[in-house]
Amino acid sequence: MNLETEIQFIWFTAFVILVTGYVILDGFDLGVGMLHLFSKKDEERRTMLNSIGPVWDGNEVWLVTAGGALFAGFPDVYATLCSAFYVPIMILLTGLIFRAVAIEVRSKRPMAWWRWTWDILFSFASLVIALALGVTMGNLIRGIPLDENKEFIGTFFDLIDPYVFMVGVLAVAVFFMHGTIYTLMKTEGELHEKMRAWVSPSIIFYIISYATVTMATLIYMPHMIEIIKNRPIFFLIAIANMLVIANIPREVQRGRDGWAFISSCLNIILLMVLYAVGTYPNVVRAFNDPENLSLTIFNSSSSLKTLEILLLIAVIGIPMVLSYTFGIYWIFRGKVKLDSHSY
User: How much of the chain is helix, strand and coil, in % rounded to 5?
Assistant: First the structure.
C-alpha cells in the first residue's frame, strides 16, 4: 500500500465505524419504538419512551456524521447513492421526522386518542426506518445497475427483490431484539418482567432471519464470501458472531441484562465487519459489470490532500462525539424513573 491507498482504507474504516456506531445506538431506539405498542398501559409506554428520551437525538448525530464523512471522503459514492436510493432515503427521512415529532408531542396532551395516535406513528416510523436501512444494506450487498459513468440506470423497482427484502426483515429483527434487551436493562417491576417474556421471541425472530439471510447469501451472493475463501482467517469473524448470538439468551437467563446488551452490541459490530469484509473494496457494487463499473474505495475517493485534511478533522471530531456519547449515557445510567419532567 502507498500513502494514498492507506489513507483511503483508513477513511473507509472510519466511515464503517460511524455507521456501526449509529446502528448500535439508534438501533435500540428503533427497537423500543417497534415494541411500544406491545404494552397497553400508558405508564409503561411512557417508561419505554423515557428509556430513550435523553439519548435518541444524540444517537442520530452518528448518522449525520456518517453522511458527512461519505460526502467528503467518497463524493462519487454519495452522488450515486443519493440518485439510486432517492425514494428509500426520503422514506427514511420522513420516518425520522415523524419519530422525532411523536416522541416530543406524545405526552403534551392527556387525551387517550391523542397519545394513541402518536404511539402508532412512533411505532410505525421506527419500523419503516429499520426496514429502509435494511433494504439499503441489502442493495449494497447485491449491487445496483450502473453505467460507464458510475450512474444509476435502474428504477425504484430494481431496488426490490426477495433477497433485499430478507435483509430488510433481518434489520427489523436485529433492532427489535436490540431494543427489547435495552428496555429489559433499563426497566424494573411489571414492565421488566414483560420484557423478559418478550426477549425469547425476539431472539428467535432474529435467529430465524439471520439463518435465512446467511443461507441466501451463500447461495445467491457468492461474492460476499470470496475474501473469506481466499483468507480463511476471516471465517473466525463469523464464528465469533455465532458465539456472541448464543451468549445473548445465556446472559438473559442468568439475569445479567447488561452483559446481554453488550453481546447484542457485539453482534451488530461483527455483522458490520462481515459486511465490510464481504464487500471490500467495493462501496457500491455494479451487478451488471462488477469488475469495471463498481465504485470502490480507490476509484471514488477524494484527492489525497482532501483525505489528509479530513483525517485530521476526524481525529479531532470522532473523540468529541465519543466523549459526548459516553457522558450522556453515564449521566442517565440506571433504571428509568418517571417524574414531572418525563415524556
Answer: 80, 5, 20
Helix, strand or coil, per DSSP, at residue 285:
coil
Contact residues for 285 (Cβ-Cβ < 8 A; gap 6+): 140, 141, 142, 143, 144, 223, 279, 294
Q: What is the pLDDT of residues 287-343, one digit of tens each?
A: 998 899 999 999 999 999 999 998 888 888 888 888 988 898 898 888 888 776 666
**Residue 283 near residue 296, CB atoms below 8 Å:** yes
Contact 284, 78 (CB under 8 A): no
Map residue 50 onto helix, strand or coil: helix
Each residue of 15-45: b (16+ CB within 10 Å) or e? bbbbbbbbbbbbbbbbbbbbbbeebeeeebb
Separation CA 87–CA 132 (nearest Å): 10
311's grid cell: 483525517
* C-beta atoms surrounding 156 within 10 Å: 11
The predicted pLDDT at position 259 comes to 96
Grid coordinates belonging to 66: 456518517
- Please, which residues have CB within 8 angstroms of residue 170's CB and are 6 or more apart in sequence? 134, 206, 209, 210, 212, 213
Tell me the three cell numbers of residue 215.
443461507
CA neighbor of 128 nearest in space, from 70, 177, 182, 89:
89
User: What is the full DSSP assignment across 233-276?
Assistant: GGHHHHHHHHHHHHHHHHHHHTT-HHHHHHHHHHHHHHHHHHHH
Q: Alpha-carbon distance 165 to 135, whole Å?
A: 6
Residue spans of the chain under pLDDT 50: none
- Do 135 and 168 form a contact (C-beta atoms < 8 A)? yes
pLDDT at residue 342, as a whole number: 67
* Cα gap 54→49, rounded to integer Å: 10
The three three-digit cell numbers of residue 133, written as one number:
436501512
Give all strands (DSSP E) within the chain, no chain letters. 282-284, 295-296
pTM of the model: 0.94
Domain boundaries, the chain: 22-234+276-332
